[in-house]
Amino acid sequence: MADGDMMAGGGSGTSSSGDKSAFLPRSLRFLTYNVRGLNIPEKRGRLLRELQALRSSVVFLQETHFRADAPPQLLTRAFPTGFFSNYTQGKSRGTAILFAKDVPFVVTDTLCDDEGRYLFVKGSISGVAYTFASIYLPKVNQHRCLAGIVKALDKFQTGILILAGDFNVPLDPRIDTSRRQSNIPPSSIRHLKRTLDSLHLVDVWRALNSGARDFTYYSSVHASSSRIDYLFMQQHQLHLLLEADIGTRTWSDHSPVWMSLTSPLFRPRERSWRLNTHLLEDPGFSRELSGAMTHYFEENAGVGEVSEVTVWEAHKAVVRGLLISKAVALKKAKSTETVDLLNGIRRLEQSHLYSSDDADFK
């Protein structure tokens, strides 16, 4: 009986005293984004802020438009590691893969082409092997381009494979386009699907949203929407998939597409607290905090047998509580405002999808 109790305790992840582990499993979020050029500093800043807000772990970019001989700086403290494939003949195309600072990725090899069409990166995260591929297919003969890319990827890849990018092809025009049709020959789409099947690759968003209609790209020229941006995983690795979604289209004509996977990483159950110094720049809150401290010492200093040291140490907890409460309230208000704005944009997109009237956005 004692052995059985010990086994049950071990299976639940707690000790016999009921103490919980100090760490929790942590997922990884993978995001793909056609950014339509990042040579303007403002666009790079906007992208990096959005990636942080979306809590991206690994980011696949297409159409960076960087020159191979003089690419601009894209890496920051939040995303200190990145790999790039730039078109050698001009400022167009281009792919990239970025890693967030809290992803302990160790690279072992990379492969890219001079055309700025694909970038492969492989390595490990906490000892688990991964291969990441960011691709940007042309607007014509997509199936031929993909066949060459997948052939190279098959020789390169090892471990868990994540392929992402802009295919410029709706895989099922009946549900992946607003007009329910495409000018891409059906034979080309069939060839493209067979190429994906050769590596057992599965469209993760479609796997979770069978029959649903949503789009990642809007063409103002043709006044139509389509789903041409994808994240793929191999079929035998789909058990790692937690969720997948299409984000809101804002500053690019493409929407970000993301998915979350289980990972070998863990995160602390409790995070360490750091003072948000911006709170002290608010005169109203500074007065509120000062008043609370004055009231605290008036009520507690010199009372009974409580020592001055105890009163002083306890006041730190009171101040910290006020700061945390204020920070949470501000964060919640900002988050609510952002969500409301994005939901509003999303509603306008859906309205425009069926009306095709540009007045919907005014």
UniProtKB/TrEMBL annotation:
Name it. exodeoxyribonuclease III
For the site Important for catalytic activity, which positions are given?
229
Residues at the catalytic site: 136, 166, 254
The source's superkingdom equals Eukaryota
Keywords for the protein's UniProt record, in alphabetical order:
DNA damage, DNA repair, Hydrolase, Magnesium, Manganese, Metal-binding
An example of a GO molecular function for this protein is: double-stranded DNA 3'-5' DNA exonuclease activity
Reply yes or no: does the keyword Manganese apply: yes
